[in-house]
From TrEMBL:
It comes from Cognatishimia maritima. Its main location: cytoplasm. It catalyses: 2-thio-N(6)-dimethylallyladenosine(37) in tRNA + S-adenosyl-L-methionine = 2-methylsulfanyl-N(6)-dimethylallyladenosine(37) in tRNA + S-adenosyl-L-homocysteine + H(+); N(6)-dimethylallyladenosine(37) in tRNA + (sulfur carrier)-SH + AH2 + 2 S-adenosyl-L-methionine = 2-methylsulfanyl-N(6)-dimethylallyladenosine(37) in tRNA + (sulfur carrier)-H + 5'-deoxyadenosine + L-methionine + A + S-adenosyl-L-homocysteine + 2 H(+); N(6)-dimethylallyladenosine(37) in tRNA + (sulfur carrier)-SH + AH2 + S-adenosyl-L-methionine = 2-thio-N(6)-dimethylallyladenosine(37) in tRNA + (sulfur carrier)-H + 5'-deoxyadenosine + L-methionine + A + H(+). This is tRNA-2-methylthio-N(6)-dimethylallyladenosine synthase. [4Fe-4S] cluster 1 binds at C14, C50, C84. Residues 379-441 form the TRAM domain. Residues 356-383 form a coiled coil. Binds 2 [4Fe-4S] clusters. One cluster is coordinated with 3 cysteines and an exchangeable S-adenosyl-L-methionine. It is found in: Cytoplasm. It holds the Pfam family TRAM. GO terms for cellular component: cytosol. Its cofactor is [4Fe-4S] cluster. [4Fe-4S] cluster 2 binds at C159, C163, C166. It is an enzyme of class 2 (transferase).
Length: 441
């Protein structure tokens, strides 16, 4: 096609944004755009942004500044900002960076093609509405192109929890669950296109309460059991969850549902009850530890992942020690940790900050402990048999790289496996960030 235009999308932040970027690329495919990996070739550049911490939001403006020269050379180039910074700052983005043509919030992506047309007519386009219609229905992929073997599928968006530090309830809005029927048909479509592992996404995915197939409301466990029936789909994961929504049926599914992988990301944020209360988390350190015990009783080999914030307003050394104690008790195979970052408009934004150097020093100590635990749990995989889904070729000849059931990266040489194959692998070595194994079946 002579007039195919090129779209470059840069994605920041969470997996939900990765999924949204794919959907935006498909929507723009219908408007005559194909994606490119290089911004220099692009007729349109879209930054799909993250607002979760200050640094993430500031990155957007420095990136936009870098496009100035490109726009001077190519006046027809359109520049758009999508995602949570778009939702949170709206028109302010165009005021601060006038080269921006388009600002689109996460709930309005299906309107992108019309917005792009508007920019071609020389106007600016802004849409940060929370419309009633299901954007994913409107964004339905036209393409039947083959997909990589592991895919994301958004089933729930938004959050009603209002943790005192978090912008998500404001940028992504209230909790909304997609009807099960739509999720299932999208999953079937992905499987037909070569997908063997699906990660169900939601800001608070275990609070899923979508319309079921039988007129009742379905829980996340109900949805997982239905997806378990899809032939060709071999692995199911979900992220990210809140401890208070970990219902009995979901815990049981971890023990009973063969395709549900033994990995759970269950953020606790802090181990101090005082801080948890101030964070508005509505659970205690003790209730979290008891919950983990119940989940591990259902699935003893489960690998646990978490999120932690250090230096939350008024966190003392004693509070921080309580977080270290919780980590020592729980033992995490994977973790993400952050220094508290003030987010305008959130309840915690008005509170007195912990000294920055102190917070940085705590983060270092926390990360040292988490790294040590991760390494120990990774090393403990040596000698064990895991299943590996191969996702790409390795750097060496006949070497393939995939993910184990526990989400460890595993390198396997000489297996003859293809991308998309699942093999039994015996782990023989533990490296810095990945395992080495040999195929045994
Ligand atoms: N400061 C630091 N970390 C934050 N997170 C969310 N908001 C903030 C903030 N204001 C972290 C939490 C959450 C993860 C996605 O990001 O740990 O679980
Ligand atoms: Fe943010 Fe997660 Fe808390 Fe919701 S549950 S407010 S997304 S940290």
């Amino acid at each position: 096609m002579a007039d195919t235009k090129k779209l470059f999308i840069k994605t920041y932040g969470c997996q939900m944004n990765v999924y949204d970027s794919e959907r935006m690329a498909e929507a723009m495919g219908g408007a005559g755009y194909e994606t490119t990996e290089t911004p220099e070739d692009a007729d349109m550049i879209l930054l799909n942004t993250c607002h979760i911490r200050e640094k993430a939001a500031e990155k957007v403006y420095s990136e936009l500044g870098r496009f100035k020269g490109m726009k001077a050379d190519k006046p027809d180039l359109k520049i758009g900002v999508a995602g949570c910074v778009a939702q949170a700052e709206g028109e302010e983005i165009m005021r601060r960076q006038p080269l921006v043509d388009l600002v689109v919030g996460p709930q309005a992506y299906h309107r992108l093609p019309e917005m792009e047309e508007k920019t071609r007519a020389g106007e600016k386009a802004l849409d940060t509405d929370f419309p009633e219609e299901d954007k994913f229905e409107k964004l339905k992929g036209r393409s039947k192109a083959k997909r990589a073997p592991a895919a994301f599928l958004t089933v729930q968006e938004g959050c009603d929890k209002f943790c005192a530090f978090c912008v998500v309830p404001y940028t992504r809005g209230a909790e909304v669950s997609r009807p099960a029927e739509r999720v299932i048909s999208e999953a079937q479509d992905l499987v037909e296109r070569g997908v063997r592992e699906i990660t169900l996404l939601g800001q608070n995915v275990n609070a899923y309460h979508g319309a079921g197939l039988n007129g009742s409301t379905w829980s996340l466990a109900d949805l997982i059991w239905k997806l378990n029936e899809i032939d060709g789909l071999e692995r199911i994961r979900f992220t990210t969850s809140h401890p208070n929504d970990m219902q009995d049926d979901l815990i049981a599914a971890h023990g009973e549902c063969a395709k549900l992988m033994p990995y759970l990301h269950l953020p606790v944020q802090s181990g101090s009850d005082k801080i948890l209360k101030r964070m508005n988390r509505s659970h205690t350190a003790e209730s979290y530890i008891r919950l983990i015990e119940r989940i591990r009783a259902a699935r003893p080999d489960l690998l646990l992942s978490g999120d932690f914030i250090v230096g939350f307003p008024e966190e003392t050394e004693e509070d921080f020690q309580a977080t270290l104690d919780l980590i020592k008790e729980v033992k995490y195979g994977q973790a993400y940790s952050f220094k508290y970052s003030t987010r305008p408009g959130t309840p915690a934004a008005e509170r007195p900050l912990v000294d920055d150097a102190e917070a940085s020093e705590r983060l270092q100590r926390l990360q040292a402990l988490l790294s040590q635990q991760q390494k120990e749990l990774q090393d403990a995989m040596v000698g064990r048999e895991v299943s590996v889904l191969f996702e790409k070729e390795g750097r060496f000849e006949d070497q393939m790289v995939g993910k184990s059931d526990y989400l460890h990266a595993v390198h396997v040489a000489g297996s003859g496996a293809q991308i998309g194959d699942i093999r039994k692998v015996k782990i023989v070595e533990s490296g810095t960030n990945s395992l080495k194994g040999v195929a045994i079946a």
